[in-house]
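Listing S7. Sequence submitted for prediction.
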Amino acid sequence: MSNHKDYRCYGLRLLTVTAVFLALIAGFNGFFDPYQVIGTPTIKGLNQVKREKDIQVRLFKAVAVNKIEAKSLFLGSSRTEFGLDTHHPGLSDLQPGYNLAITGGNMYEVRRYFDHAIATQPEVKEIILSLDFFMFNQAKKNTPDFREERLGTRNLFVGDLFEVLLSKPAFISSLRTLKNSFSRPNNPGFFYEDGRRNPDSTIEQVYFNQGVIPRFRMVLRDFLVRPDLYGTYQLSVDYLNDLNAVITTSQQRGIRLHLFISPSHALQWEAIRVAGLWSEFEAWKRALVNLSPIWDFSGYNSMTTEAIADPMQYYIESSHYRKELGDLVLNRILDYRPETVPSDFGILLTPTNLETHLEQIRRDRELWAQENPKWVEFVEALKP
């Protein structure tokens, strides 16, 4: 009997210690709230610099958009995250807005975040959706941090709650949040409050403060090597159907939906050519236009051929553009101060003008290549 009581007491003590330990961990992580999903008040010097949100983009954005009554949204990949500012004056009557683009997402993920937004944000009136070639690659699978369960609801998913409060990664992120908040209290981190990415933090932490040319080289090589980007490519019918679902639902809900192809730098289009995917690139545009008119900012126009120098006014590297260029994109799409936008930047594609436009891009590419053989060779040298 004595041994039984001893075991019972030991078990109770162990449970008590474990419960206290977990409560302390949960309290610690809840206070520092490294992914900014709990809603803990921020205290300067302790927990206000949330740089760790970058490792839980899909989680924190699903929660963040629920904290406002959004009237306008941006959707797409990290190109949209960097380039589009919700405070653009052309959207002044559609505030607040939120940049709900998700890093490296495929079209299915983008569709599901669209579904999430319209399920929880009944006031949304306008959506601007950026489309990228790689988003429609059959090999581009859902990212590991994508979870269906957190979408379509304003409540925090139980699995996410555990991840935020009790997981080892969250504890490490909380420690880093304390360190960053204490050592760099005025640093905004990777994201602004409206969901737009901070290019300065990205250049520092992701590109290790490298100059423009090393950044171009790093990104282009990545696109050429990775099978889910340009390494291999098969246009996904399923992803086209996901886009069509977004278009159809927007029409049914009376939401103004603007579609556009990102204005990456000319070297990004050279990477598509070097990868042997130019015909697939054009086939993708044809498939898009069959679904809806779409603004095309790609190609070799006066903006995408910006001279490569350090610093650059409009580009971070070949794939991602800055707010300065994003403002011109929005000027064109929203017909806001159209006189500020070069005439060759942004063409509304329809079945009527598509083939002429594709032919014009081929001619523009030949002229650009003749004038820039150094950069043609630069991209070709990166092919694995």
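Caption to Listing S7: primary sequence and predicted structure tokens for the chain studied. The chain has 15 helices and six strands. Strands lie at 72-75, 97-99, 126-131, 256-261, 294-296, 347-349.
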